[in-house]
Amino acid sequence: MIKILLLISLFLVEVILCDQQVKLSVSSSLVSIDNGFLQLEFDVKSPRISKITADFNGVGEYGKNLVGDRGISLEHSLVVGGKVTTLSSSRSGAGSNVQVKVVTNTTKSVQVDISNVVDDSSNPFLTSVWSIKVDQSHRDFSLSVDTKCIRDSPDTISVQVGNYLTPTSSFGNFQRGVQQMMNATQNYFGSTNKLTRYYALGDTGSVVSLLSSTPVQNVILSAEYNRTSDFRSGVVHVQHGSFPIKRNDYWESLLQSITDDKKSPLKKSSALAPIQTTIAVNHLDFPVLSPHHIHQQINVNFEHLRALYTAVYASPAGALVSYQFPSGVISPTVAYPNRGYWPLFNFYDPDSWFSISAMMYVSDPYINNECRKMLETSAKLVQPDGQLPHHFIGDGDHDLRPTFEAISGATQTGPNIFWALSALQYVKNSGDYEWLKKQADTIRLVIKYITDRYDPNFQLINAPGPLQIDTMIRNNFTSDTNAMVVYLMDQIAEMQDFLNEPSDAYRELSKNIKIGINKWLYRNDHYITQINPDKSTRDFIDYDANLLAVAFNVPEPKERSLKIMKRILSGKCVHGNVKKSPRATFVSEIYYDAANCYGGNTGDSDITMGRIAWAEAHALVAMNDTSSFYQFILDPLIEDLNQHTWLYERYDCDSNPAHNSFYIEYPELIAMLVREIVFGIELGLNVIRINPHLPGGRSEFEYAVGDLLVEYDGHVGSFLIESGIGGGLVKKYRVGKFLPKTEFVVVVEKKGGDRKEMKVTTCEHGVLHFDAPFGAPFVVSGKINA
Q1: TM segments (predicted)?
Q2: How many angstroms separate the CA atoms of 389 and 404, rounded?
Q3: Can you tell me the distance from the alpha carbon of 47 to that of 95, in angstroms, rounded to the nearest whole number?
């Protein structure tokens, strides 16, 4: 018998989904709650949450079911005659006295308690009370499960609440580190380490579980696509005992037999560890991590925020392998279940610079900490001359071994250059200024490895190998390394200014190298690959080096930039020049054959690379060609991301995916371009810049990501900047593409405190220049002085 206790009326006014009201429906077999953002069903006859669907837009156009046939259910593992029984579960059938109690039922909130949910309808050992709460305008619901034993159970192995989900990939964010998996052949990864956050995404949408209780064990789930299993991902929260797998911290199968010493008997009336969690859902492939993580209303630039979140949380945030290697490492791919280039980690040529930049742009404290760990893994092994490891090799289950050469055997400048830039990205976007002070000497030593190679006669860095494409033979006075060092020196000078240390030498070096590049490396309409000490040259018309030079304003006179871009954009594998427009961006005009590649490896000679696309994107913006940036670079890649969630390592000339699948570079590129160019947000150590390049003539955006909020309207003439980092340090602001010579009222407001106004007039380029505190507890805003 099933009792339904209605504490308030169930005669609800029809829900208007655009108002995101909450609707409850209760029958003898089903409890359904709907608020426009999510719909969940609790099957009373087969007690479990049997259906969760979501609509990020909040209009009730729900996607696929995010839970498998097992749903979210109570489970009891037992041993009989030495054999592990099939998991006894609430989903096997309702007991004799299931009760549904409607605690709250308004248009703003619904709470339902379901009691007498048992593990076995015919012979129960356990009973539980499930409390489900859904609020208006929320993409999440709260779930608590309180379980107790109603009779002695001497053969218990474990009691748990299983969340069996349909998205493709599982992500466990443990206190120890990240554990991600998809398509596992062994389906269970147990851990007693604290689970900070679990999420799953891919194919059917995304699910996030944020625990506020502490189970005795958590088990991450993953299953193959072609299995008969009714789940692809999920998490089991163990309330008592230990889940029946051989060991924790490894992917395992369920045990078929078990010895008596592995049992965990239960006594009548024993209370088990409660499960209290908030579950956030989305029909799209990015996690909604909290009600405030993404603003509830869709704004005019939603497609770019979607791309940012999907790119980061599906790819680099999953490629972290820090549970297995707690010192902090990242793989070039996610686990699918294998990983490309396994067991190699933390490439800074420039892979990990992309990873850290992209991950820092979502302002997620857990991920920020992972980025810091990655940086410190390399910093601990800096050599006396300043050289950093090129990457790390996994040695056994948990140990790492550094190597100072690329896979190709090349000695590159990239690891030092891009590690230093990564360190600055971490500090700028976390506000961890104390870390910078502690690491400043290490950063300077790392930079010294590069600057010691400066030749004043050529005014260039003499590079031992290539900057960022390790297969290609490039050495001596190369255009790729020197173009990047122009930017690097300016960034280090900014660091020195922030630390009140001398900076002139770095700026002077940047200027001198710029002179050297233009004097020795420019030929007609491009920069050549290299000049040697004997003044002989090599030239493959490298797109990466030339685009970096344009992006960093190296060409002098400026007309050279136009010639360079014209030369590059005339290439056969460049956008619009073939029937199927290639993805960004191809490597070089002249093919690097085996004789010009380390070990004869031509694998990167006829493809595109995300790292070169980053340079091209910034070069196009430097040339005020925003339309080409969207048409040829960002929009096609976002289309691929939305369609596939995970992307390949490279593309060929016809835009066909190439090399390793589930590679993280192109998603990271998308995240970087969204933040740096679309929204134009730069949180510098000394200068805050807001310089958006919005598509389609748009002039306004709202960027609400993590603890950073930027509102901007170039047409109306207004802005607002609020951040949880920064600590209120006074910084220079450069805001806008507003009308030139226009007076604004800029307001600096301390929350719960003073308010200061100042009048500021835009410069001839329409940019506001002023000084103000940055970060909590200050909010900085401005509008045209009407």
Answers
A1: none
A2: 5
A3: 9
